[in-house]
Design a protein that fits this description.
Elements lengths: L7 E11 L2 E12 L3 E5 L6 H8 L7 E6 L2 E3 L4 H6 L2 E4 L13 H5 L1 H9 L6 H14 L15 H14 L4 E5 L7 H16 L3 E5 L3 H7 L2 E6 L2 E7 L5 H9 L17 E10 L3 E9 L3 E5 L6 H9 L5 E7 L2 E3 L4 H6 L2 E4 L3 H5 L6 H6 L3 H4 L8 H14 L16 H13 L5 E5 L7 H16 L3 E6 L2 H7 L2 E6 L2 E7 L5 H8 L4
Parallel strand pairs: 3-8, 3-9, 6-7, 7-8, 13-18, 13-19, 16-17, 17-18
Antiparallel strand pairs: 1-2, 1-4, 4-5, 9-10, 11-12, 11-14, 14-15, 19-20
The structure holds adenosine-5'-triphosphate and magnesium ion.
Magnesium ion binds next to helix 1.
Length: about 500
């Protein structure tokens, strides 16, 4: 059910506090039906919080919200939905019910409602209606497919379909493109343009600044919980946006590294993993930052997992310093001084119920223990504080629960906790997802330091510009195979993209 006409949304003087943090300070935000509004800002700036206020997640905010100049008080998700405010959060995995069909997932609220009222549910019509909604979005997803069989992109589309199955005047998308490939992002943008033409107002959060210029009409910038500016995208450049976000000018300054080392540390020979890896052979030297370039689904994660012993279907040989070793589990990998910084923070990277300090020390308990086996709390919090400072993690203290950090700051903890270990081989799988431009630079600096200390770094990413900035040598992979090996100093973005999309 889409908006019949364009609606005006205004948030005025919105403030909200959590213990120890003023997350929003008198923020103003305006959005209109039929337009795409970007909300940008560094990690912890307050973007998600502002959208949570709007979608009824909190009832302790101050300030006012108006729809078409009529005041509206949203204090529950249900109340917000009834006013036509729908939200799709980034963690789509946790919202899709795995054992229900796409159709049931789309019409979940309606079905649950019917069941509550003990109404008879006409399943035939549920499937028909779901099909119509998907057709209306020009999407080709089978409504019978189970939630768990959907790709990440499809899950997101199903949630968008769910959002518009009831009243939808504004659709909030919080970092929707972070896990998507370029092609999937293109599909999402088609859906967004279509909804825009149907008068829905879209609120769009992203750290990928180039894409704002493809899809947005207006940009609102937040910094440290405060409103900085609101401008038409036409009046902005990427550098200007960064300046507003960080409060200072900024140029991504990739230092050129003079890398020479012949000492071989890691060698893989014909690594295979059940069709996902089709015979990968590569090597990495001491002190080298080796890039693995590949698009979403190319096999980067499978490759990282194979070396770390996550998968038990791996064939092929792994050599460390010339010696053939067996890695059957992550424990074996850790014994061989390999660290993996995995891609998905929620699922595997972070203990959300624990403090930042505990998360950071969880990678190397032995280092923090005294001889008698007591946990050295002082040492633990020193290391935590050091990392909080180096990565500018926005937290009240090292004791803050990781769950209360903003998305990007959680990612910084996931990456940061490995940086103090004594591993010799570091594998980073898309470490900068959801991290703001300034923080990326901090992470790159720490990775460069690791290499300077003689550790070997494997950096897997689909962001070609990052690979060019940080690595010494790159393997492009496509469909589970290495298609090309390149010296970073002798290649460019076009060439990397060419090989990563299967060119040869
Ligand atoms: N429930 C909460 N309890 C305590 N602090 C919170 C809570 N929710 C958010 N915060 C804090 O409020 C600030 C703003 O967080 P928010 O999630 O809105 O940032 P964000 O702009 O979305 O950042 P990111 O780009 O990293 O997602 C952060 O300092 C965060 O730690
Ligand atoms: Mg956020």
């Amino acid at each position: 059910m889409l908006a019949k006409e364009k609606v005006l949304l205004q948030m005025k003087d919105i403030s909200i506090e959590f213990p120890g943090v003023k997350a929003l300070k008198s923020v103003n935000f305006t959005a209109e039906g039929g337009k795409v509004h970007a909300v940008v800002g560094a990690n912890g700036a307050g973007k998600s919080t502002l959208m949570k206020v709007l979608s009824g997640a909190y009832n302790h905010y101050t300030g006012q919200i108006f729809i078409d100049e009529k005041p509206m008080h949203v204090t529950s998700p249900k109340a917000a939905k009834e006013k036509g405010i729908q939200v799709v959060y980034q963690e789509v995995d946790t919202v899709i019910v795995p054992y229900l069909s796409a159709a049931e997932n789309i019409l979940l609220d309606e079905i649950a409602n019917g069941m509550d009222k003990k109404l008879f549910i006409n399943w035939k019509s549920v499937y028909k209606k779901a099909e119509e909604i998907l057709k209306g979005l020009n999407l080709n997803i089978s409504v019978r497919k189970l939630g768990e069989e959907l790709t990440l992109a499809e899950k997101q589309m199903v949630l968008i379909a769910r959002a518009i199955s009831s009243q939808c005047k504004f659709l909030i998308l919080d970092e929707p493109t972070a896990p998507l490939s370029n092609r999937e992002t293109g599909e999402l943008f088609k859906v967004i343009r279509d909804l825009k033409s149907k008068n829905v107002g879209i609120i769009f959060i992203s750290h990928r600044l180039p894409e704002l210029f493809k899809i947005c009409d207006e940009v609102t910038v937040l910094r440290d919980g405060e409103f900085v500016t609101n401008k038409e995208i036409k009046a902005l450049t990427q550098n200007k946006i960064v300046e507003y976000m960080l409060g200072k000018g900024f140029e991504q300054s990739f230092e050129k590294r003079a890398f020479v080392s012949k000492e071989n540390i890691l060698k893989l020979e014909s690594l295979r993993d059940n069709g996902k890896l089709k015979g990968i052979s590569l090597y990495a030297n001491k002190g080298e930052i080796l890039g693995i370039a590949g698009l979403v689904g190319a096999g980067k994660t499978e490759l990282c997992n194979a070396v770390f012993g996550v998968s038990n279907r791996v064939n092929g040989d792994i050599f460390i310093k010339g010696k053939r070793i067996k890695i059957k589990s992550p424990r074996d990998a850790v014994k061989n001084k390999i660290a993996l910084i995995p891609e998905e923070r929620r699922k595997e990277g972070i203990l959300t119920e624990e403090s930042i300090a505990v998360n950071i020390s969880s990678t190397d308990i032995s280092k923090f223990s005294k001889t008698l086996g007591f946990f050295n709390l002082k040492k633990e919090s020193e290391v935590a504080l050091d990392l909080i400072k180096k990565l500018q993690i926005k937290a009240t203290s090292g004791n803050q629960k990781a769950a209360l950090l903003s998305g990007g700051n959680q990612q910084k903890v996931v990456v940061g906790k490995w940086l103090h270990t004594d591993a010799e081989i570091f594998i980073f799988d898309e470490p900068t997802k959801g991290v703001d431009v300034g923080a990326k630079e901090d992470i790159f600096k720490l990775i460069r330091d690791l290499a300077e200390q003689g550790r070997t770094v494997i950096y897997a990413s689909c962001e070609m510009s990052e690979l060019l900035g940080i690595t010494d040598r790159i393997y492009a992979i496509y469909d589970g195979k290495i298609v090309k090996e390149l010296r970073t100093s002798e290649t460019n973005e076009e060439e990397l993209l060419f090989y990563s999309t299967g060119g040869h």
